[in-house]
Amino acid sequence: MANFFTRSQFRGFTENLSLQERTNIRKRAEERSPSGTTFLSHSSKDQDILPGVIRVLENHGATVYIDKKDSSLPPYTSKDTAAKLKNRIQQSKKFVLLATENSKDSRWVPWELGVADGNKSFDNIAIFPVLEDTMNDSWTNWEYLGLYDHVAWRKFRGKEKEEWMVWDRRKNTASALAQWLAR
């Protein structure tokens, strides 16, 4: 069984960073070119955990792009925003959807996943579930979320310690997060 981290655990990751470190992590991800990066789709309501999630991905070799403050995007969401985001997703190497309770209420997150699905192979898309509580992870496989591999904290067979991995629950196979990001 996969272990998914909770919002409070990611808040802990984030709170361990200084305010300046949190700001720098977000700023770097917002300002870089999306070309060849890992596009991190997320709800704007998940700002409290975003630096912790970015840090996990970047500690495993990702160069994360988020669209929050991309100066080339229009100041107000419109069809131009959608066109630019579609282009950003196409330019990225990997697509990771930060899946939280907030994601399902977002207009943009499911749309971004649909764009990624149409432009990338399944091998380049992953869902990164963050739970409100560890007893309720059934939603991580609802509808279309169950189609994709999941980023999870788990022990590989034959290993002593748990580590971040990208897990295909359908086949019950996995690769280390760093390996998945490098492909």
Could you explain the architecture of this structure?
This protein has 183 residues and is of the alpha/beta class. The chain has one domain (7-182): Rossmann fold. 34% of the residues lie in helices and 19% in strands. It contains 6 helices and 7 strands. The protein has helices at residues 7-15, 19-31, 50-59, 79-91, 108-119, 177-182; strands spanning 38-41, 64-65, 94-99, 125-129, 149-155, 162-168, 173-176. α1 (7-15) crosses α3, α2 crosses α3 and α4 (79-91) crosses α5. It starts with 6 loop residues before the first helix and ends with a helix.
The shape, in one word, is: globular
Largest sheet: 7 strands, mixed
- What is the typical, i.e. mean, pLDDT? 89
- The value of Rg in angstroms is 16 Å
Please tell me the total number of domains: 1
H-E string: HHEHEHEHEEEEH
Which oligomeric state applies?
Answer: single chain
- Secondary structural class: alpha/beta
Q: What is the CATH topology?
A: Rossmann fold
Give the helix proportion (percent range).
Answer: 25-40%
* N/C terminus separation: 25 Å
Poorly predicted residue ranges: none
Total of helices: 6
